[in-house]
Design goal:
347 residues, alpha/beta, Rossmann fold, TATA-Binding Protein, eight-stranded mixed sheet, six-stranded antiparallel sheet, 21% strand, globular
């Protein structure tokens, strides 16, 4: 249990930030009244959330669908071996850690897959969103929701030792589809699983995203209008001017194709960096964990930590989440994953 801090007001705690002329005490108060959605709690999201919490952002909404795995520890700075041993959902483990870092702010963990059915509600809880998604589909979904709502968000991506960052200010500068109209075809872009990612590169990208976010929360400044390209191994950073595109289907023509599910979420998804497939039911209902546990215990090893249930069958592990999703670990074959879910959990 953390030791109690001696009495300390916010002015003392955040003195080094408020001493900065572009923040000041008024700006720090503004940050304490702000809220940010961190979409994904992996390599980027864990670093973003840590920096935002230490900066005194008043409320953080942390959305993630995954659980902490040992392979996350080198690159995801919020987690430790206890989280792995307890099989904690990332959002919950992140919230626990951040509450110990800053007990004076509000942390809201959301253990869920971000889809067209919930992204607008999640974005509605915050003044701004930070992209830490592990797939292109979710980024385009966030872009749709943010442009529709007129809320700023900060794009970020990292692979290997390279990264990109761009602040999106709807109605002011370009959106994601102004630059990249469609996501790359599946299989054409390497993933963190096949290509790797350097932890320092993820933290660098996240730090620039948070810097852009603080600018936006304080009133905008010079955030937006540039695509930042980073190479930490080569020690280089370049900002390329980006402009709105008149024919952009999203911010120009206001067609929200991803949000409207015309290009929406799949019922199954292979996780980046994991030998695992997520199966999402068409109708999301809270599982009957007690009944499920009783049914599965005669068939294999079952554990339940109060949040997620895990069932091991041979070389495959099925993790059942509170929103009804099932993560099948030990395969990248979506057909096999669906078959295992139908066999043990039910369709």
């Amino acid at each position: 249990m953390p030791a109690e801090l001696p009495p300390q007001d916010d002015a003392s705690r955040y003195a080094r930030h408020s001493a900065l002329g572009f923040i000041g005490q008024a700006g720090q108060r503004k940050l304490s009244q702000s809220s940010v959605l961190v979409l994904g709690c992996g390599s980027l999201g864990s670093a973003q959330a840590m920096l935002l919490a230490r900066a005194g952002i008043g409320r953080l909404v942390l959305a993630d669908r995954d659980i902490v795995d040992a392979c996350n520890l080198p690159t995801q700075i919020l987690y430790d071996e206890r989280d792995v041993a307890e099989r904690r959902p990332k959002a919950e483990a992140a919230a626990r850690r951040l509450r110990a870092v800053n007990s004076g702010i509000t942390i809201e963990p959301v253990i869920a897959d971000v889809t067209a059915s919930n992204v607008e509600e999640l974005l509605g809880r915050a003044d701004l969103a930070l992209d830490a998604a592990d797939n292109f589909e979710t980024r385009y979904l966030l872009n749709d929701a943010a442009v529709k709502a007129g809320k700023p968000w900060v794009y970020g991506g990292v692979l290997g030792t390279d990264g990109m960052v761009m602040a999106v200010r709807p109605g002011v500068g370009p959106c994601l589809r102004c630059l990249f109209e469609t996501p790359p075809d599946m299989g054409l872009v390497p993933t963190c699983d096949t290509f790797g990612v350097l932890n320092a590169a993820a933290v660098w990208v996240a730090a620039l995203q948070v810097s852009e976010a603080i600018k936006l929360l304080l009133g905008g400044g010079k955030a937006g209008g540039s695509l930042h390209m980073l190479d930490i191994w080569g020690g280089t950073a370049e900002a390329v001017s980006a402009e709105r595109r008149t024919g952009c289907p999203c911010c120009g023509e206001r067609r929200f194709e991803f949000l409207d599910s015309r290009r929406g979420s799949s019922a199954s998804a292979v996780f980046c960096g994991r030998n695992a497939v997520q199966i999402t039911p068409e109708r999301r209902l809270a599982p009957d964990f007690a009944g499920l546990r009783a049914r599965l215990e005669p068939l294999g090893a079952v554990t339940f930590n109060g949040v997620v249930l895990e069932f091991t069958a041979g070389a495959r592990r099925l993790t059942v989440f509170p929103d009804g999703r099932v993560l099948v670990t030990g395969t990248k074959d979506t057909a096999e994953a669906r078959s295992l879910v139908a066999k043990y959990i039910g369709s």
